[in-house]
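Lab notebook: predicted structure, single chain.

Context: the supervisor wants predicted structures on file for every construct in the current expression panel, including those that have not yet been purified. This is the next one on the list. No modifications to the sequence; it matches the entry in the shared construct table.
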Amino acid sequence: MTAQNSATARPPIAIEAGRPTVRRGPGSGVLLAGLGVLAFSLTFPSTVWGLESFGPWSLVALRTVLAALIAGCALLAGRVPVPARRHWAGLAVVAGGVVVGFPLLTSLALRTSTSSHAAVVVGLLPLTTALLSALRTGARPPRAFWAAALAGAAVVIAFTAQQSGGTLFGGDLYLFGALLVCAAGYTEGGRLAGVMPGWQVIGWALVLSLPLAVAGAAVALPFEPVRLTVHGVVGLVWVATVSTFLGLYAWYRGMAEIGVPRASQLQLAQPLLTLVWSFLLLGEEVSAAAPVAAVAVLLCIAVTQRAGIRGTRPTRAGESVRS
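Prediction complete. Output recorded below exactly as produced.
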């Protein structure tokens, strides 16, 4: 074998945290991204459990404190350098949308809404993220993308209207607000993931949120009753360690290995998985409309993802160019 052929046979090298790393095959990326989706699918049922012991403000503050401590230890152990000053504004958007805004708004919604209902509404998150990303980056997906986007939005609006008797409740307003802030955080996080590993994006966003979370816990805990139960503690630990940090770590690593479009396809299963967990863990009576709406939303989002893949070619995490 010639020196040239030997060189081409070597696995591709990527630079991560200042050190070269060997990129794994697509199988490991699918597994990692799938583990991330599995972790996220348990977030709403775990939040319902956490609300048995804590108020919504206390739960969000405590989950952020615990997750930020874990992230800080991981960043210190990896000797990760502090991001450049120009990245901190983007990290603040990630912190406000993914770390604080989405957990808080969904926790407030789950006081009056069921986990299965919330799962269907938030099933529109990939689509919402795609819309904000198009506005942020100036990308122009094909017409099939927007047609499916409108169909998915119509399904979600029809479902929420049917479940609420034709009117939107406060919980639904919280959920739609959660969609917007989380989509903004995902969009900005995807952009930052093009210049630093994705797990560091969420790690630094958590560290940035720590002072606010500590202050929030100090204010909320005296005013919101704490009734410790096994479910409540397990729910808090899950949303802090898995949903907020470890799940995102696996998700971003998988996304970096198989690309953003392909990883997004796996997340389409998240609402249906949440419906299953809500039935098994919470004993919720899932109405016939909920799984039907979930499947319809997933089909619409699948069309948008396939149309987007045909219209763009992936380059690196958080970035795509027109082909």
